[in-house]
Sequence to fold (168 residues):
Amino acid sequence: MPQASRPKIARHGKRASDSKLGRLHRQTLQRMRAPRNAGPSADLVSEFNWHVQKWKIDTRHFSSVRAMVSHPSYRRIMGMGKDGLPLLLQELNRQPNHWLVALNAMTGLDPVPVGATFNEAVSVWLDWGRKNGHLPKWYATPISRTIFHGSAVATIRLPVPQTAHTIA
Fold:
């Protein structure tokens, strides 16, 4: 009857398979640890976008901001906290909407001066996001801007600045 082969012993006195498993374990842990400046996870982005669309559809006919911010999707976005902050600032930059209450709840701050208009408040929050590293610098120029004036709303397309690329 043939003998069962015994695992080979590495030079350190450990089994070769143990050292291989240890290396794989370390590599897996390194992949799982996200760098500090990593963006939000794909699951969070997907959930955020779903709640934004649901909130926009469900509240498009609401005239009360209180009713808008009481919507379950809006509250879920606020519940994302600091992880959802870059996503919310990007959404505010892409298409300004009533996200100011959520920004206040997520940060605990209100950088907007008293008496500011909606457009001024949006601009202040976007500047705050850039200065604090929550909004990438390349988000400095929006592609479109929604302007609120009384009961009229207009979305205008802004020119995208052309940057010169040089090859060194």
Helices lie at 16-32, 42-59, 65-69, 72-79, 81-94, 100-107, 118-131. DSSP finds seven helices and two strands in the chain.
